[in-house]
Structures are given as C-alpha cells and as structure tokens.
Amino acid sequence: MIRKLEEFEVWFVTGSQHLYGEEILQNVASHSGEIAQALNVSPHIPVRVVYKAVVTTPDQVSQVAIQANASENCIGLVVWMHTFSPAKMWIRALDILHKPLAHFHTQYNSEIPWSEIDMDFMNENQSAHGGREFGFMATRMRKNRKVIVGHWQEEEARRRIGIWTRAAAGWHVLQQTKVARIGDNMREVAVTEGDKVEAQMRFGFSVNGYGLGDLVKHIDQVSDADVARLIKEYADQYRIEKKVLDSHSLADSARIELGLRSFLTQGGFGAYTNTFENLHGMKQLPGIASQRLMADGYGFGAEGDWKTAALLHAAKVMAQGLEGGTSFMEDYTYDFRPGRSRVLGSHMLEICPSIASGQPRCEVHPLGIGGKEDPARLVFDVAPGQAINVSLVDMGNRFRLLVNEVDVVSPGEELPKLPVARVLWDPRPNLSVAAASWILGGGAHHTVFSKAITTEFIEDFAEMAGVELVVIDQETSVRDFKDKLRWNEVYFHLFQNRM
Ligand code: MN
Fold first, then answer.
1. Across the chain, what does the average pLDDT equal?
2. 3-class SS at 439?
C-alpha cells in the first residue's frame, strides 16, 4: 500500500539568461543534462531526477512551475543557476509553485584551471554570484527551501539532495493520506487531540472517525482458511511456542489482522488509530496486527493519536530502503542513575518490528487494562545506534515539530518478564536536559521513533510544511531552548508561511 519512491521524480531546472549567446546556452544545457543524470543514477537519490529545462525568460520559468504543480509524480524542483539568472524573472514562478524547492548551489567546473582561466570560463561558471541573486529573491519572498552547497560530483551534496527528495516524497504522499480514527480518542487525554481541519490545511492529510462496527464487519468476514494461512506465516517469520501456535488467542489475533487489513485497503487508508477503551465487538486490542501493518508502511497511533499516525506514515515513506526501521513509540519508564539516566521506550503492544534486532518472538499475555482477551504481540529488543524521537504538537495557533536525538544502548540485562518490544535510549545531551526541554516544548509521550531517518529529514519536511521545528541535541541547553520557544512564539504569530 505504501507509495514507492521509484514512482516519484524531481525536476532539475537551470536558470540562465540570453546575454551570453547561443554557444554558452548550449553548454549550459548540456552541463545541466549531465548533472541531472549524475544525480539520477546516484544511490543516494532514490527518486528519478529529470532534467527539465534551461529557463531564460519569466514565461519559461512560470511554465515550469505550473507544470510542476500539475504533475502527479513531480514531488519538487531542484534549481541551479549555472550562470547569472536575473531573479525578477523568478518572482511569478516562486509565487505560484506549490511543490517543495531545493536550491542546488553547485558549479559545473570543480577546481579553477589556474593557467587557462579566461573571461569565457568566468562567464560560463557564474554560480557563485548567480546563486546569490536567486537566493536573494527567494529569501525576499520568504520562500521556504533547502539550500545545498557543494560540487555535484561530491557524495555529501548528493546525500543531502537525497534526504530532501525523501522528505519531499513523504510530504507528497501526506497530501493524499487518509487517516482512519477508529473509536476516537482515549477518554480525557489531551495531547492526542488537536485541530484536524488545520492539520489538513497545513499537511494535507485528512482524519475521519469510524465506529467499531465498520471494522468488526471486516473481521467477521475473514475465513478460517485465511486465518490458518496467516498463522503459518507467523510461524515462518517469528519464534513461537507450540502452545501459542495452537491457541485461540493467536487465531483471534490473526483474524483481527486480516480484518484490519481489509478495512484499511478498502478505505484507501495510509494510517489509522485505535484505542483500548473502544473495542466494542472485538475480542482483543490489535497487537501483532498493528505491529505488522506498521512494518508494511501504515502509520499507526495508539489511543486515538492521529498526529503521530500521520507523521509515522510520512516517515515510513521517507525511510524506504534505508537501514534502521521506524516505529510508533512511547517514553515508558526511566532508568534513573546518577550520571547516566536513560529512557525505556515501549508501548502496551504496538511497536514496529522494522526496528527489531534479530527474530521477534510471538507471545500471548494478558493486557492488564481494557478488559479484553489476551492479545498476541511480537516481543523484541533493538540494537544500539543513533535514532530520533519526533513529536508533532498542536500548539493551538500552529503546529510544532519536536525532535530529540538519542543513542540506543543495550540494557546489559535480560528482561525475562517484560512481554513487550522495548528499546533503551540515552537522550542527547542527557536525560535531565532532554526531558526538561521536551516537556517545556509540549512534546507528547507518543513519538515517531526512527533509526533510519535523521533530524535533517525532519528539518526538510518542516520547511515544506512551513511549521516550527525545535531540536534537542548534543548542543541543547534548557535556558537557550526556552528562549527559542519564546522567540518562535513571536515569529509564528507574525508570520505563518507556507512552502
Ligand atoms: Mn500510549
């Protein structure tokens, strides 16, 4: 169900002008084609890079923007000023463009040919000032975009363009994402609520409510043969004890997975939420079902958390093909120790096995709350490495994206009695600063946790959405962080821009 990155394309557009004569313009075009092709075949860039045009007049520039807006598969523009391109001719295009924009500030030639350099060379390799002219205009128009500086043959520049294309793909998909909120919200919970109308205006995704009967209808239609087939798949993929394999609970879990899949497929949903308080007509809270649906790319939010569900789906689109995995997550409990306090992240059931180290175990245990039967779930640990936690917060007058960079660590202990997937992390710069900043920033207990994508992905995505981003990382101090929040309050009050 997840849209594949190979379906998408970014358009490579080169700015120039007529002053230099045909010969130089032909060189500009051939260099542009060469660079676009080099980016197209780069393993860092998962979407197609299509060389579109060298634009030299206001009409040409505007036409490209109009076509980009109308194109179903174009997820953004990469623009480059090979020569000087007087930027007033970009005004209309920048005004009407509704797709993400990246300014690649590169130059065809790498090193200066010291003994050969003449005025022809100087006229042809003018990015250094051409890019500044374009940059002024985009900044003057308060146009959000990513500026990537580097020679086009360098890996680092390609890596950063690649990240932007992934963020743009997530953004593009989100414009059409339908989120099913099954059973509404966990009662009285605040952070999972929010302005769904504003969210749709800002991010594109829509959230609509469904009663449990809508889902139960699909669960009741699942055949015993299909349940048996799915249990066989569980047995192939996970470690399962014989008594679990033969249990009614596992059969019920499999039936719920198949029903949920059918409901989501038929409705064309990319993400969904549920809540253990509203399960009328269901035997269990979906456990393994939600875990496996996340692994297939669905966004999920527990307790009605539609913001995290939508963000998770976008993150899943961005992360395709990358190592690491991405999951719904919750800050669950602390390991408070002098000098090295840590967070144990988990949930009642719903952690995505894409972040698992090794083969998950499939187990059945009582849930403790909700008053339903014992659900099956996948239990696993997560390998050490860098990760991020991301929260999408509704501040009432705007949305805020909050990121904490963390390092996953090994507990160094077995957890034989904990029947859920779990991950231990050391938040940067430390728990004391990270948790204080997170709480001051209004960050939720639910997050999108990812070992596949980094802060840079979320930064690019925040620019596309035109929303606030605050990052808690190695450099964060609580005092500076509080100031940032206050300054942002003023900035976003004055200035609500869109891409
Ligand atoms: Mn929760």
1. 96
2. helix
